[in-house]
Specification:
By secondary structure, this protein is α+β, with helices and mostly antiparallel strands. The protein folds into three domains: 167 residues, no CATH class; 66 residues; 138 residues, Heat Shock Protein 90. It contains twelve helices and five strands. Strands 1-2-3-5-4 form a five-stranded mixed sheet, covered by helices on one side. Helix 4 packs parallel to helix 6 and helix 5 packs antiparallel against helix 6. The C terminus is likely disordered. Its EC number is 2.7.13.3. InterPro entries: HATPase_C_sf, Sensor_HK_TwoCompSys, Sig_transdc_His_kin_sub3_dim/P. GO terms for molecular function: kinase activity.
Length: 403
């Protein structure tokens, strides 16, 4: 995994400010204190600060530019100013330290090390040739300070680059991990749904196969052709059931696969009552007409049960001690089969909780997939009184449920 350092806007602002300030000070000191020609002072100062600007985008060229400018500035400073550092001016020290530090953070630590050594060697050579009349103490101190600051800039740049890259790698690894976890949770939830669908469909196919196979014995007066057709229907059901079990057999590979009949609307009262041990109260309001209940498919009953189950689990985890209400309604429309409305809401928690409703994996995302599989939609939102509400709307296909 390769992480690149981003170009941060504020870094450009800071570098530009440093470059402008150093240019103004360096060109002035070069022409006055160090007695350099004005043209030389302006040109070398401009070249030096150009290296500072370049190094943030082109580190190798920036380091090279600043090194050439500083070396020329040292080589041309033949006049020894007793009142200022020599042979490396203070502005040149600052410019080189900034350039080497930024260049190192951009991955050019070796180039920065060589550049610092080149400036130190050039300064020593100039001091040896020109500075014979000057006490060696200030010269040695000047070069030593430069080498110390340059080494600190390189080491600091290496540490900063390592920290930034490590942080970037951790951020990318965390993002990859979150994506992988979300995908795994989706797969697990779909696997769970597939197991339940297998149970429901297998039960229906078994009933079809048994009724078709026993029809000639239960109705002995049917003709031979009808009996043969029932036998063919039973054989087709057996074949389809065997193929489905073979195809979904991998979902039963784990020891925890659910073998019991799947729950439905009949188990909702027990589910809501069980939540009262943790909540302040839980109420089930079931307004479904009996004829609608009878014509509802097992898959739809299972979906309603799972939505209520997951919603109550979220309330128990994130808002214990509150009141919960589960309401199931049926809305009919002229010329249509109607739709089911399943609402689960809880009151405001008595204590502020730092938890948030789970929006991934087996939580809301799993409920949304279940409801969407039946052509419905599920929405969640906080309530005006500080609680939370889940609303599932599922179209009721009477033709499918009565077939």
């Amino acid at each position: 995994m390769k992480v690149q350092l981003r170009q941060v806007p504020w870094v450009w602002v800071a570098v530009s400010a440093v470059a402008i300030t150093l240019f103004a000070v360096s060109s002035t000191l070069g022409a006055t204190v160090y007695s350099s020609p004005v043209a030389h002072s302006l040109g070398l100062s401009a070249l030096q600060v150009a290296g500072i600007v370049l190094v943030n985008r082109y580190p190798r060229w920036g380091i090279l530019t600043a090194t050439v400018a500083t070396t020329l500035m040292v080589a041309l400073s033949s006049t020894i100013p007793p009142e200022a550092p020599w042979p490396i001016p203070v502005t040149s020290v600052i410019a080189m330290v900034v350039t080497l530090g930024i260049g190192t953070t951009r991955g050019r630590w070796l180039t920065a090390t060589v550049a610092g050594a080149v400036v130190a060697i050039a300064s020593t050579s100039v001091a040896t040739d020109v500075g014979a009349t000057m006490p060696p103490g200030p010269i040695v101190a000047n070069i030593t300070v430069f080498l110390s600051l340059a080494a600190a800039a390189v080491l600091g740049g290496v540490v900063l680059r390592t920290a930034i890259l490590t942080r970037g790698e951790l951020r990318e690894a965390r993002e990859v991990s979150e994506v992988a976890l979300a995908r795994r949770e989706i797969v697990e939830e779909r696997t769970r749904i597939a197991r339940e669908m297998h149970d429901v469909v297998a039960h229906g196919m078994s009933v079809i196969q048994v009724q078709a196979a026993s029809a000639p014995y239960r109705y002995p007066d049917i003709g031979i052709e009808v009996a043969a057709e029932f036998d063919e229907l039973a054989a087709t059901a057996r074949t389809a059931l065997a193929e489905m079990r073979a195809l979904l057999g991998v979902l039963r590979a784990d020891d925890d696969a659910e073998q019991a009949p799947q729950p439905g609307l009949a188990e909702l009262p027990d589910l809501v009552a069980g939540a009262r041990s943790t909540l302040l109260d839980s109420v089930l309001i079931d307004n479904l007409p009996e004829d609608v209940r009878q014509r509802m498919s097992p898959v739809m009953g299972l979906t309603i049960y799972r939505v209520v189950q997951e919603s109550l689990s979220n309330i128990v985890r994130h808002a214990p001690g509150t009141e919960a209400e589960v309401e199931i309604n049926y809305e009919s429309a002229p010329g249509q089969s109607g739709r089911l409305l399943i609402g689960i809401r809880n009151s405001k928690p008595s204590e502020v909780t730092t938890h948030e409703i789970d929006t991934s994996g087996h939580g809301i995302r799993g409920m949304q997939e279940r409801v969407a599989a039946l052509g419905g939609a599920l929405s969640t939102a906080p309530t005006a009184d500080g609680g939370f509400a889940v609303l599932a709307i599922i179209p009721l296909n009477l033709e499918a449920t009565t077939a």
